[in-house]
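Support reply, case 0932

Customer input (verbatim):
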Amino acid sequence: MFRSSTREVPADPPSVPRHVAIIMDGNGRWAKQRLMPRIFGHKRGVDALRETVKACDALGVRFLTVFAFSSENWRRPADEVSFLMGLFLRVLDSEIERMHERGIRLKIVGNREKFSPELVTLIETAEARTAANSGLTLSIAADYGGRWDVLHALNRLHAEHPERSGQVSEEDLVPYLAMSYAPEPDLFIRTGGEQRISNFLLWQLAYTELYFTDLLWPDFGQKAFDDAIAWYQGRERRFGRTSEQLQAVSGC
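Our regenerated output:
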């Protein structure tokens, strides 16, 4: 199990983030600016994700988690939701062998109850196909919400261990969270100009560095990713300590 940043200070925060989490915002606005239907922005957003996966793989990032569809996105127009579900199906079907050949492990996190049986089957097939891969772990959060994650974990814990009711520790809960297989994100990126985390990884982002850019997701390429990494590398990661304590530890 990966260690919690609220329980103990990480021994050596990495210069290259182990785990990058991204809210890929701005697809619809990108299309609107070009007088195109929103669906064209989502299609272009898939291309941007491919480029980001390549960039993370080349840099040595071990985990990439992207927010594809939130619990609240069901509120969008029905035709857009239908298109997004269809796009999800097509991308999984067309990309899974390519990811497998590159050693990428795919995980889909979130509530699958509203997904079609066809999509659930494809998700399970894709995860099984890549389960033994040891390269980059790409996690796609779909019908995911941070509050859902914590409540779902609590309910699972209580169902399996009713004797712990009222006495739950962080160590008890963490194995039941959707991202229990990954370290906490080192770097969070949100494109599109909004500066909020929108119910994404609420538990896991406790000490993550938060990077916001006005770039719309389809325009987020290699240079933009490099800029985010450079910003991260300039951060002082204190985890509740003072700058003076960090300097004493480093001997500066």
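We compared this against your earlier run and they match. Two observations from our side: The longest strand covers residues 63-70. Residues 211 and 231 are 8 Å apart (CA to CA). Please reopen the case if you see a mismatch on your end.
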